[in-house]
Each structure stands twice: as C-alpha cells, then as structure tokens.
Amino acid sequence: MKLKAHEVESWVGGLKAGKAPALVLVYGPDRGGVHETAKAVRKAYLGKDFDPLQYVALDESALTGQAGLLSDEAAALPMFGEHKLVHIAGANAAVAAAVKFYLAKLEGEAAAMVLVETDNLRPTSPLRKAAETDKRAMALPCYALEARDIGRLIRQTLEAENYRIEAQAMDLLTARLATDLGIIKRELERLALYKGVRDKKAEAGMITGEDVEAALGDQTQGDYDRLIDSVALGRLDEADRALARLEATGTSAARALALARIHFQTLHLALGQMEGGTPQNKALSAFRPPLHFRRKPLVEQQMRLWSSGKCARALEILNAAEKACRGAAGGLSQAQAGNALLRIARAAQR
C-alpha cells in the first residue's frame, strides 16, 4: 500500500507494534526526511529503550546472492523481545530480490517488521512496486518541504520549547533554511540551544531576527548581502558577479529571492515612513536586525534611489519569480531568479 507525502507523519504517529505492516519502505529525494522518518518508524515500533537483540541492520552487500537471508533474519525472534525490526539501507537488485522473496514466503502475521530506507525511487522500481501493491507493506514517500510546511514545523518546534517567533524572524528563518528535513531540525535545535531552556510554565519567550542572525548566521550571508545591495544600487556587473559566486556554491534560488523580497519589503516600509515625514535615521530602524555599520551607508544610498512606488513594482517582480521557481528544476529556477534580480537592478538607476 502507499501513502501521500502529507499523510506520512500522521501514519507514523499512529503506528503500533501489534498492528504494524510486514514491510515499510521509506524513500524519496529528501534524504534528511527519509532518515528522520525511518527513525520515527523504528521508535514507534520498538519503543525508545529497546533490547539491542530486537534490532538487526543489513546493507546491500549482506543480501547479495542471499535472497533468503532477510526472511531468515525476520523469522529469528529474540529470546526476550516481543518484536524485532530488520533495517535495510539501500535499494539495489539484491534488496529488491530479498524483499520479493520475503513477501512471497510470508504466511500469516509477520513475526518481525522489515524497514527499508533508501533514496528516491521511480514508480517502476521493483522495490517500490512491491511495497505499494502488497497489502502487508506500506510505502512512505519523503519529498522536500514546501514553504508553508517549513513555517508550520518552525512554529511547532519552537512552541514545544515555549518560544514564539516574530513575523520578520520567521521570514529570515524560512529563507535561511534548506528544504531538507534533517537540516531544518538541526538548525532549529541550534536556535533553541542559543536561546536556552525555558520553563514550560513561564510566559512564552520571543525569537527575534537578531536571534536568528546570531544563532544561524554564516559566511554565505555576506554574499547574499552583497548581491542584494548590488541589485538595489543598480550595479549590474557587481550583481552579476555576486550571482555567479552564489551559484558556484550551490545556493538555492528560492533563498536568494526570499532574502531579496525581505529586503525590499523593509525598504518599502522605510521609504513609506520617510515619505510621511519620518527622518531617515528613524526610518532605518525598520531594518531588523539592525544594519551593520558597513551596510548602513549602502542602504542610505538605496533610499535615495528608490521610492515606495518603485519598491512596490520590484516586489511584484520578486513575488512572480518566487512563484515561478517553486515548480521549476534547479537550473531553470536559478536562471529565473537571476533574470528577476538583474531586471530590478536595471530599474534602480531609472
């Protein structure tokens, strides 16, 4: 049998050892998500503190030429454990043959559960077809998270630590994080450790943009700042070079666009305040976290080049590019992001 990606978390949460399938296949392009899901399946089936004899790990090489080994391991129950889990890493022909043999020989209730953890599989993959078509098996796909899913995960994780998060901090964090579930969880753990343990009975603490920058800031952020400032100042050559540097490091086009959008949203707000009579120094306080002293003159120069109306048009371009990039392949999304940013850079000097 098979589930849709959005159904996986709920299914794993309800998994019970007494009613578990004989085989669970966890697969997908999100390697972190695959690993985290496999860990959750193991915990749900064996419990937190299980007897080591209840758990057997096999790899592809162990099954090569031994299709019956999986069935033998699954049938050999531990002396003192009620349940046993056989965990396989990989999905080559030997694994597929072993799984096919195991399901064919299985009679009645399974004495153990077999858990297969692997990368993405095509619908025509023998292993995936076996898991999806057999009623005693379950296939769990893991795909990269969408922005709304990342936002929900951020809130749930921080609320569990008795923290709330500001809207701008959420934008920064969502833009900064990858879409790999494993990486996201590690980064959120870093952020929670930076803020410290908070009494669950106390009033919820607040995560700010400054907290995100301090806990998760990296060298790549400087490259993003250079790209955004070059775009906002209309420096086409510098913007082009900054884009090339980021692409060379495998940077996400979605992240570049999201950070540019946050910058222009804040610039739009600051310019609106200035057009309403607010002094420039006070309007600059709209930027959170506060601008580094080296960036401040660059942003002041941007405020002389842009109006709130021009910023609104730049935001329309960025929003359209973000939408287009969501369904595009990696190379195409990079090209679309680059075109949008360079288009805005040309508009800066008009």
TrEMBL record:
It catalyses: DNA(n) + a 2'-deoxyribonucleoside 5'-triphosphate = DNA(n+1) + diphosphate. It is an enzyme of class 2 (transferase). Belongs to the DNA polymerase HolA subunit family. This is DNA-directed DNA polymerase. NCBIfam families: holA. Its EC number is 2.7.7.7. SUPFAM superfamilies: P-loop containing nucleoside triphosphate hydrolases (SSF52540), post-AAA+ oligomerization domain-like (SSF48019). It comes from PS1 clade bacterium. GO terms for cellular component: DNA polymerase III complex. Keywords: DNA replication, DNA-directed DNA polymerase, Nucleotidyltransferase, Transferase. The keyword Nucleotidyltransferase applies. GO terms for biological process: DNA-templated DNA replication. GO terms for molecular function: DNA binding; DNA-directed DNA polymerase activity.
